[in-house]
Specification:
The protein is an alpha+beta fold and about 120 residues long. Helices cover about 35% and strands about 25% of the residues.
């Protein structure tokens, strides 16, 4: 899972990756996290931001839980690769990126886009 996830997340404009919090691969845009992947066996394989209006429906699904420490900000954690389809997971990751991008300041987005 990690290889396709890396390739997919890094295909987004201005996305970066860093190993953080021990054994987690963290994807960011503008210094803000949009996805956290476990590199070692863990309860959750992936944590992403969720649209507030979708949060309750998501966490009611088997294999998806409110993200520890981040649920109040509407983050969810995926327990396994078969919790959601590959296509749906890609859409959820893209939504997480878009939500984080939209929260960046106008100045930060302009700097990243090379617009002054």
């Amino acid at each position: 899972m990690i290889e396709w996830l890396r390739e997919y997340c890094l295909s987004f404009p201005h996305a970066t990756e860093v190993i953080q919090w021990g054994e987690h691969l963290v994807f960011k845009v503008g210094g803000k996290v949009f996805a956290i992947a476990a590199l070692e066996p863990a309860q959750y394989i992936l944590t992403i931001k969720c649209a507030p209006e979708k949060f309750n429906d998501c966490v009611e699904r088997p294999g998806i839980a409110p993200a520890p420490y981040l649920a109040r900000a509407k983050w969810i954690s995926i327990e396994s690769e078969d919790a959601v389809s590959h296509k749906e997971l890609k859409g959820m990751i893209r939504e997480s990126y878009d939500l984080v991008w939209a929260k960046l300041s106008k100045k930060a987005r302009s700097i990243l886009d090379g617009v002054s």
